[in-house]
Amino acid sequence: MTKNLRDLLLAFKSGEISLEEVEKQIKFNYFEEIENKLKLDVNRHFRTGVPEVVYGRGKELDEIIKATIKLAEKNGIALATKIEDVEKLNEEIKKYDLKNYIIKINKKAKTLIIKNKNYSVKKIGKVGILTAGTSDIPIAEEAKDTLEVMGVEVITYYDVGIAGIHRLFPALKKMVEENVCCIIVVAGMEGALPSVVSSMVDIPVIGVPTSTSYGIKITPLLTMLHTCSPGIVVVNIDNGFGAGVFAGLIAKKVYEGNHDKNHRGGVNRNTE
């Protein structure tokens, strides 16, 4: 079995393998192919900080499972999103020998996480997630699972939309106290919650419009894009994964900055 790129370089550094073996293995590490259908970018994590994730929509369950297993073999942990038949997934995955892995199926988020029992995810910070309503929770959970794979702790408060604005204040207070590096705000209907949140905190806000609405599905996206409150970035409709990745990269950079400060004798705000 080929090593992932990091293990390969460490093995070369320690003298375990030769330069010729490194060259041969690197050729194998460009991608992994499954049944001449799927080509997996198994080393994406080392280039971008984000591992490849299996997009489940339009794929057969066996394709999703095999691809997620292969990515978990290479990276220790793997995620699949937007799985259409998540109810059947629970039965199908029992057909595979995964005794060395921890399986997490999130039916609400329609996600699958496969993690090697011996793999430890490095913790790199905290992110807050809010939803306007309970109908927005599946997209929030997709973002949460994405952040879990990236090693980010998540603080969630659901159903705190502007129809009952008093529900929002305790959630924001907790997130400020916990020193989250950014807040993902998931909202449908008119999509006003991200603007309200960004007007009250000095923390970057990631707006996620959802397709939850009585009327035109694009309305929350347009509301967020046309916000008059600065400090918001917006992902596409129902893109919890994209929001999770963006928040995770922010958390990673904040963690690295604090880590560098500690090595230089600076102060880590998280430990004050």
Automatic annotation (TrEMBL):
Pfam families, per database record:
AIRC
Which parts pass through the membrane? none
List each coiled-coil range: none
Domain of life, per the record? Archaea
Single Gene Ontology BP annotation: 'de novo' IMP biosynthetic process
GO molecular function terms noted in the UniProt entry: hydrolase activity
> Would you indicate the residue range of the signal peptide?
none
Domain PurE span(s) in chain numbering: 125-254
Task: Name the SMART domains for this protein.
Answer: AIRC
Q: Know the name of this protein?
A: 1-(5-phosphoribosyl)-5-amino-4-imidazole-carboxylate (AIR) carboxylase
